[in-house]
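Reference record
================
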Amino acid sequence: MILKPIGVYREMYRGKHVELPSIADSVTEQILPDHTEIIGYLRNAPAGFDVMEAVTHLFEEDRWIPGGSSLNSDGVWVWREDSIEYLADQPLEIPADFVDHVRANDYTPPAVDADDTFYDALLRYF
């Protein structure tokens, strides 16, 4: 199983996962009419792997995001808790296939069949 990352950037990993896009390269002028609903989808998905730590905000170094490296997933896509913060507040690109996926699910994250294969795929982003 391979989970597709959404809003996951190499800067979040400080030297690991150099294959991920840079957050600087993800800035866009894209305006989605249902941006609020898409962010709601990200916020309402079941937690996949909770981490009890705070991470430094990538845009505001004196600000911390509680549980920032915690992972969430809908069984197809994976994102971090801090990903939600950035996608909600910054003009960052949201891939069209993710937007189509969210709309097809009527903005409601599906239940995830969390087995060992799922957790192996999820933890690639920890």
